[in-house]
Design goal:
The chain is of the alpha/beta class. It contains 6 helices and 7 strands.
Length: about 190
């Protein structure tokens, strides 16, 4: 078992938190993890991204050249990383911010209106947690209670009031994937 995923969005969209939560949760489940965060320093307001590899066996490099999955929060991020997709990989799009993509790839696409869902529960910043819920529902990496335990650990002190809305965002993302027909679209 090996999963190579790149998470990307604008600075402030919570990619570092999302990557950190996935990394912590899979480590608690006894898997090996490497991660390589980048804060988008090449341009102010640039793309923040996170290379994350999860595996049962030893991992030799944190850098991903071909991804099993991309989690993309906005169009510039998608355009930057779309060529990292390999055949039969998965693309998770925040469809609230990405409307058109290339249709020449042999991949599974999950269009999640993460920003819209997060806004509907009262905190647009929780769109990253909506994507976490959707991604985990499809990939089944870790049980939701493990993610919630890691989330609770991260949101301590003055951030504690944000736990409930982030928990709800994870649940809404998972629910969206379970309940909406046509969310998955095979692109050929």
């Amino acid at each position: 078992m090996s999963e190579k995923v790149i998470l990307a969005g604008l600075g402030g969209q919570g990619m570092m938190l999302l990557g950190r939560l996935i990394a912590q949760a899979v480590m608690l489940e006894g898997k090996n993890v490497t991660f390589f965060p980048s804060y988008g320093t090449e341009v102010r307001g640039g793309t923040a991204y996170y290379h994350l590899t999860v595996a049962e066996e030893e991992i030799f490099s944190p850098v991903i050249e071909e991804a099993d999955a991309l989690i993309m929060m906005n169009l510039p991020s998608y355009l930057k990383f779309k060529d990292f997709l390999k055949p039969d990989s998965m693309l998770f799009l925040n469809s609230s911010m990405i409307d058109k993509i290339d249709n020449e790839m042999n991949i599974d696409v999950f269009r999640i209106p993460a920003t819209k869902i997060a806004n509907s529960i009262g905190n647009v910043v929780a769109s990253n947690m909506v994507m976490l819920g959707a991604y985990n529902e499809v990939k089944n990496l870790v049980s939701i209670p493990v993610f919630l335990s890691c989330l609770k650990n991260v949101l301590k002190g003055r951030k504690e009031p944000f736990y409930e809305v982030n928990k709800l965002a994870i649940e809404k993302g998972a629910e969206f994937v379970r309940n909406i027909n046509g969310v998955k679209q095979r692109l050929y």
